Amino acid sequence: MSSPVSYELEGNIGVITVDNPPVNALSQPVRQGLLDAVTAAQADGSEALVILCAGRTFIAGADITEFGKPLKSPWLPELLAAIEASEKRVIAAIHGTALGGGFETALSAHYRCAVATAKIGLPEIKLGLLPGAGGTQRTPRLAGVQAALELITSGTPIAAEEGQAIGLIDRIIEGDLREGAIAWARDLAASDAPVRRSSEQPVPEFDPGIFDAWRAELAKRARGQIAPEHIVTCVEVGATTSFAEGMAKERELFMECMDSPQSAGMRHIFFAERTAAKVEGLAKDTPQRTIAKVGIIGGGTMGGGIAMSFANAGFDVTLIEVDDEALKRGLGIIERNYAGSVKRGKLSESDAAGHRARIAGSTDYASLADVDLVVEAVFEDPELKKTIFKKLDDTCKTGAILATNTSYQDVDAIAAVTGRPQDVIGMHFFSPAHIMKLLEVVRGAKTADDVLSTVMGLAKKIGKVPVVSGVCYGFIGNRMLKPYGETAQLMLLEGASPEQIDNAMEAWGMAMGPLRVFDLAGLDVGYKARQALSDAEKGDPKSYRVPDLLVELGRMGQKSGAGFYSYDENRRAIPDPAVDKLIEIAAEDLGVERRTITDEEIVDRLISALVNEGRKILDEGIAQRSSDIDVVYVYGYGFPASRGGPMFYADNKG
Ligand code: 3H9
């Protein structure tokens, strides 16, 4: 088998090219090829070596598919030690994304250049790991402790120019990278530039208190995760002792992370996210429709967020509202959201202005005549949605995709009111839609393959993680939420308090406990829906008696200042003895005996409720695969990625 690494001499410069599609991951043959090339180059006429990559990117990291399997030699840290030890100057030439082990390879080179569009980063923390090939040791030596901790504990890649500003990149190459890198290598050789090993650089001066400050900060930010704390320890050991001791600590703690269930969960989610993008039965070459102009119906929180998602990705958006006043209100919310992003430093003023300028408002459906996609985002009234889809059928051009953002309704029934059900699909965004990554893509019985394929591709373009769902009440996520919420209600009656339930779930890793979520969403929404149902349809009163009583007392949740909790002016939840009393009365009324419930029981019963419904969803073919359900819960419902999603967690628990 030919090696994915080639080596050729261009005059006095040795050029090492990695060609391992799709992302040039450091699989064993790549590691071996790099080692062979660097070793061979020591004995030839080269005066400097350039390491670069073919295809779309520089090395994007270690090969994650090898993790959890027996290690195959050469191990990455050993390879990188050999590259750094080269007697010939080594120059890394970066395009695309140099990530993880890929960026660590660049750090083991003596000089680094990049095209301006390149990004560099150490995202291992997002896989529950730490950089395990010298990243925690070489980064602080080049960029200082503070910048290194920022880069490694955030896991967020930075632009090449930002890397240059902090000392991680030496030169930005304009024009052709290969030519530019070789020319620079020749200059370095001609000027007899030193072999400059990162491991031999001293760590720039730092405040000794910095490590404890980071530990305290990370304990809040990354509750319960082991990798962040270990990253600080590795950087600290390397900065306060020696490179060799730092490397030994890095190896020890990297292996500990690698063997942890947290990393197993996060690695599962990494692949689950990418698998979710694949639709069974949909040919790879299914054509996609061209989407440039998008219409959004409804300028509420949801519609506004969806409009921003598209505008931020460069699409022209027309937002439709019923009258001028509602339109003004909707555009005002968008305006404020952009201003907030600028204020928080998330967006530059000029980018915000550019995105905002792509959103036009209208009260006339005729403005939708030439859009390629419409997303309806009005409130959950099935009849209103059907009326809107009839209008869209009359107004939109042939071939336009008509999507509904419904959270629950029957997409097939909505499609049936149009003369083009093949063009109708569900696009279920999560609030706030411009921030939340999940998009449930609801495939109707008649949705055309090219419509589904287009929407899956589009989701990626607007930065979302799409998961396909079949049609059922609540689709994947909200359907599972129902038994989860009902189990929480039952446990309140049986003796747990709202804060005990929420604290137990948050300590386990959920972003927010179930009762705080209900308060945030508004208890009146479910109450109103129940009023339209018969007693038989409502089900067991134990599952809704407490929230009904709360709403009847005017406690709608956060928006009315009280729900399962009372809220202060900062919207902080305060346990309320009046709620405890109300629960006790409801329990007595419903004949529920109260007892002590442990936190463990709370977690077990709530997660089991999710998993049991997830099973049914799988059996019915609503979800394509178990890992899709995990993606829905991690990206849409605050389920901890470090537990791999409810189905992965249950599978591992047995
Ligand atoms: C590490 O480096 C540890 C070291 O410190 C120490 C070691 C001792 N390995 O995302 P895409 C596959 S940890 C194997 O759709 P994009 C991916 O599964 C690693 N496979 O493309 C997919 O396969 P398929 C640190 C990988 O253009 C295909 O490539 N590095 C890897 O949207 C395309 O991926 C990272 O965490 C990998 N490392 O985004 C970077 N990466 O087509 C992880 C990707 O069969 N990767 N694949 O579904 C990424 O962030 C993105 O893939 C990237 C491209 C930004 C590079």
Structure description:
With 654 residues, the protein is α/β, with parallel strands linked by helices. The protein has three domains: 5-258, 2-enoyl-CoA Hydratase, Chain A, domain 1; 293-469, Rossmann fold (3-Layer(aba) Sandwich); 477-621, N-(1-d-carboxylethyl)-l-norvaline Dehydrogenase, domain 2 (Orthogonal Bundle). The chain is 48% helix and 13% strand. The protein has 27 helices and 19 strands. An eight-stranded mixed sheet has the order 12-11-10-13-14-15-16-17, sandwiched between helices. The mean pLDDT is 96. (S)-3-Hydroxyhexanoyl-CoA (3H9) is lined by residues 22-23, 25, 57, 60-65, 76, 97, 99-101, 104, 123-124, 127, 129, 131-133, 135, 274.
What's the level 1 CATH class of the largest domain?
Alpha Beta
| Integer average pLDDT | 96
Helix content: 40-55%
Compute the gyration radius: what is it?
28 Å
Distance between the terminal alpha carbons, to the nearest Å?
A: 41 Å
* Count of helix runs: 27
What's the CATH topology label of the largest domain?
2-enoyl-CoA Hydratase, Chain A, domain 1
What characteristic shape results from the CA principal axes? globular
- Biggest beta-sheet profile: 8 strands, mixed
Q: Could you state the CATH homologous superfamily of the largest domain?
A: 2-enoyl-CoA Hydratase, Chain A, domain 1
Unreliable spans? none
- The structural domain count equals 3
Class derived from helix and strand content: alpha/beta
